[in-house]
Amino acid sequence: MLTIPALLIFGLVEGGKRAVIGFFKTSARYLVQASGAVLALVFTDKLTTGPDVRLYSELFLLGYGATVVAIRLRFPMRLWSLQYDLLFYRFIYWFIAVLVAVFAPLVPPFVPYLNLPDFGSKLAIVVVIIILLSFVGLFLRLADIFKDLENSRVRRYWKEYATPDYETILKVEEFEHHPEIQVSRWQRIRTWLRSFINKIRIKTK
């Protein structure tokens, strides 16, 4: 049975170093997504954890978001900064998806009560169901907001990347431009005489 070191050696031999690096990069991406799913389970108390784990999870979420904002502000046009942003969005997508999966099952238990004969009871159950659906819809709306932010970030990056920086281009052209030196009439005559004398010397040799 192949072990992880054996698989890495096999991948290094067959695909080279790039294949192994690509494997770890892909694994890291899914590791971030899985962290978002587990963090959502911690926040909804679906995992048996202590108060310290809850506190560390909240600090991790706040710290992760703060690093995304700081890196985007400091390195807005770096490709790795864009990739870091996309990882955060994947993290949030799975975080929200698990929240929806946790709270959505709260709605079906109220559906059978719609068969109650009393109109007032039915109306109350309908109101409860609408409130629960609206609560779940908030998470779905939040997912759409992050999706729009992701698309906007990608479009803005490629727009800036594809738009020439005319100010920089003008500075480079100005730096590389060497203006012609004005030559006086006497200097042109002197140069012509030197060239003429050199030609005569060559012919007389």
Order of helices and strands: HHHHHH
Structural class: mainly alpha
**Structural domain tally:** 1
Radius of gyration, taken over Cα atoms and rounded to an integer in Å:
34 Å
pLDDT < 50 stretches:
none
Mean of the pLDDT scores?
Answer: 77
Portion of residues within helices? over 70%
Tell me the β content: under 5%
Secondary structure tally, helices: 6
The main β sheet shows up as: none
- Strand runs, count: 0
**Alpha carbon gap, first and last residue:** 89 Å
Q: What overall form do the CA principal axes indicate?
A: elongated
Description:
The mean pLDDT is 77. The chain is built from six helices and no strands. It starts with a helix and ends with a helix. With 205 residues, the chain is mainly alpha-helical. α3 runs antiparallel to α4. The protein has one domain (4-158).
Features:
6 helices, mainly alpha, elongated, 205 residues
Give a quick summary of the entry.
By secondary structure, the protein is mostly helical.
Write the layout of secondary structure elements.
Layout: H1 4-43, H2 51-74, H3 79-103, H4 119-162, H5 166-176, H6 185-204
Helix pairs in contact: 1-3, 2-3, 3-4
